[in-house]
Design a protein that fits this description.
Chain lengths: 283, 283
């Protein structure tokens, strides 16, 4: 079973909810899919036992076979290949802009001369480890790398279906989020009751409806802002799974990278209740 | 004319609050909201839309079931697992590479251009603003960011403006990279937490990678003074230019609830702190 934790707006408390939920349960695998800015490891302090470099396939042209026919450049919708045709005595050449390549493989398969092979380009790393009984997997996108989804897919290859998978998703509503949430059994949307929080919650709700994933809402810092978020949830019949008021002691623990349930074990029962509520709703 | 972008790595550190305040302080400028998949700046600036345009980008495969002979070539060719065994295309997974349409022996697959969002030129009480809305669960946020940037720059040049003030996206991936091109200075907003620092350092690396000068601000610095001091020390040791600190104040949320920038709201020391940041940013 995969329970993902997401939000439209960043900084609402996704990682806090995911980490504390995971620490309150047994037989858990934790997946941090926010590969641009992974933070769960700051709280869980996992022992990393395996590092796997993550690659995407990009074309390499064998210039000795290539006749610069231009087919590859024509089929590449990402404009990652440019072909300079031969002129008089000057032989043409092919330029590959690897960072634009999505690794679809069309150029290599469609080259009439079979002059393209695919080589690996490193985009980040997948790290696997454990914290106590919990399995831990996250991805780290390389600096300057634009595309997160291929790395997110590689993190998700490690999903263990026999475990309760708790997934920390990236913020927003576009492809990194969609790639992360795909095939989740349930999604916990974390928000804060501010105009920004509500605006972005509405967008996130639309994503989940489009993806047909059941979801509920956790309202964090529930006493900062106004009542419009709760009103919206009531009107849209979206379950409010949990409310956490703003407490300086929670903010303080967070700032030091301490999970709430470690600093204040009395909160554990609230996260177990959150899990039970999610289970009840999946069934 | 100078272009400034506000980014953070981690979401929810206060990018948009700071951008809104700078919009109120700067003279003769154009605003651009480049957090296109969870835009919030409009909630503070209440733009009146003057021009509305479709953002057409990317392709999606469409299989004509009448022509399809169910050979399965497309299913095995697609690296994004976007075609199911019953030959329907999952629009969310399809990256529009068109590989399938090239190899289909029955010519049953067409590529259709998608409308991936909308962009707007608006008027606000602080001057013109260019903003956008990416369609739910859509791709190509980087392209939409580049489009918003281009339009904002053109508008600023036409009106002989001194500044383009850009609200950026969280993370370090394509929308952030697209928001950095041609920027004179990136203002990085962090918070006194381990996650905030971790993510700010990653995004500062990205600015260095693309040769964009950066300045750092610690928002809500008094939520953990010890951590703020650590960040200050880290900046001093690593040549990061820290140009200001802003305290935690509930009136920031109250102003947001009223749809105002903090500069238009009741007196708070936050205003002076942001004023100083804006002064230092202009040097």
């Amino acid at each position: 079973m995969i329970i993902s934790v997401a939000s439209g707006k960043g900084g609402t408390g996704k990682t806090t909810i995911a980490v504390n939920l995971a620490l309150s349960l047994n037989n858990v695998q934790f997946l941090d899919c926010d590969v641009e800015e992974p933070n769960a490891h700051i709280f869980l302090k996992p022992k990393i036992t395996e590092q796997k470099k993550a690659y995407i396939p990009v074309p390499e042209i064998d210039e000795s076979i290539c006749d610069t026919c231009g087919k590859c450049s024509k089929v590449c919708v990402y404009k990652a290949i440019a072909v300079l045709p031969s002129r008089a005595e000057e032989k043409g050449s092919v330029l590959v802009f690897a960072p634009l390549c999505h690794g679809c493989g069309a150029c290599a398969a469609l080259c009439p001369k079979n002059a393209i092979r695919e080589i690996n380009r490193e985009i980040g790393v997948v790290e696997i480890g454990s914290c106590g009984e919990m399995e831990f997997v996250h991805g780290k996108l390389n600096i300057g790398e634009a595309m997160a989804p291929p790395l997110i897919r590689q993190v998700k290859e490690h999903i263990d279906p026999k475990k309760t998978v708790i997934m920390d998703a990236p913020p927003g509503t576009s492809c990194p989020v969609v790639t992360s949430l795909k095939r989740s059994d349930y999604c916990i949307l974390v928000t804060e009751p501010t105009p920004f929080g509500l605006n972005d919650l509405v967008l996130a709700v639309e994503v989940l409806k489009k993806m047909k994933i059941p979801f509920g809402v956790v309202i964090n810092r529930s006493d900062l802002g106004n009542d419009l978020t709760e009103e919206y949830c009531r009107k849209e019949k979206i379950p409010i799974l949990m409310k956490i008021p703003f407490k300086k002691e929670i903010a303080m623990a967070y700032s030091k990278g301490e999970p709430i349930v470690m600093a204040f074990p009395e909160y554990k029962k609230d996260f177990i209740a959150l899990y039970d509520e999610v289970l009840r709703r999946i069934k | 004319m100078k272009q400034i972008v506000v980014i953070s790595g981690k979401g929810g550190t206060g990018k948009t609050v700071i951008t809104g305040a700078i919009a109120a302080l700067a003279e003769n400028k154009v605003m651009a909201d480049c957090d296109v998949d969870a835009a919030d700046l409009h909630l503070l600036l209440q733009p009146k839309i003057k021009e509305r345009h479709e953002f057409k980008s990317g392709l999606t495969a469409l299989i004509d079931k009448k022509l399809c002979n169910k050979c399965g070539k497309c299913v095995s060719a697609c690296r994004f697992n976007a075609i199911s065994d019953d030959f329907t295309v999952d629009n969310i997974s399809c990256e529009g590479c068109a590989f399938c349409s090239h190899i289909c022996p029955a010519g049953a697959i067409k590529m259709e251009e998608c409308v991936a969002g909308e962009w707007f030129i608006s008027e606000t009480r602080f001057g013109p603003m260019v903003h956008a809305k990416l369609g739910i669960a859509e791709e190509n946020s980087g392209k939409l960011v580049s489009l918003v940037r281009k339009e904002a720059k053109q508008l600023a040049e036409k009106n002989h403006c001194d500044w383009v003030i850009v609200d950026g996206a969280p993370g370090i991936g394509c929308p952030v990279i697209a928001s950095l091109s041609g920027i004179d200075c990136a203002l990085v907003v962090t918070e006194p937490t381990l996650s905030g620092l971790h993510d700010a350092l990653r995004v500062i690396e990205v600015t260095k990678h693309f040769n964009v000068p950066s300045r750092l601000v610690i928002n809500k610095y008094d939520l953990n003074l010890e951590m703020s001091k650590k960040i200050e020390e880290h900046c001093a040791d690593n040549g990061i230019s820290l140009i200001g600190k802003v305290r935690f104040d509930r009136s920031v949320v109250e102003a947001m609830v009223e749809g105002k920038t903090i500069m238009e709201y009741k007196d708070t020391p936050v205003k002076d702190e942001i004023r100083k940041i804006w002064e230092r940013l202009q040097i």
